[in-house]
Design a protein that fits this description.
By secondary structure, this protein is mostly helical. The protein has helices at about 5-35, 45-80, 90-95, 100-130. It has one domain. Helix 1 packs antiparallel against helix 2 (about 45-80). The chain starts with a helix and ends with a helix.
Length: about 130
């Protein structure tokens, strides 16, 4: 692959990861909003259904994120193999100081959002049913 094709693939996978994050936040916000407005009608069956569906979705997003991250890492390795013939734009994209921190921070944020959404769902159920 040429340098331009590798950079295009890196941009494509970065965009996919960004879209995964946006959808995850949107679904998480929908769970919290639905829990807030439908608190009086929550029963155990609905609680288990929402937690199961949300957990399945979170697992799918996690697997997709990790797969995209691994593929993007492979493209970066291909870019490194091109060596000194890289353009200035490639060097700048490879030397992004926030890249490694962002890639390590995003999964932890996702885990925190997952725990917070489930905790709010369970807390609302317990509060409404006075458990």
């Amino acid at each position: 692959m040429t340098e331009a094709e590798i950079l295009e693939q890196i941009a494509l996978y970065t965009d996919r990861m960004w879209l995964l994050g946006q959808w995850y936040v949107a679904i998480s916000l929908a769970v919290v909003t639905a829990t807030h407005f439908a608190a009086k009608s929550l029963n155990l069956a609905i609680l288990i259904a929402i937690i199961s569906l949300y957990s399945s979705y979170a697992a799918l997003v996690t697997v997709s994120y990790l797969w995209n991250y691994n593929v993007m890492s492979a493209f970066y390795l291909d870019l490194f193999e091109l060596g000194p013939a890289l353009s200035e734009g490639s060097r700048v994209s490879m030397s992004d100081p926030w890249g490694p921190y962002t890639a390590k921070l995003i999964p932890w944020i996702g885990i925190a959002v997952f725990i917070a959404c489930n905790a709010y769902l369970i807390w609302t159920y317990m509060r409404e049913n006075k458990i």
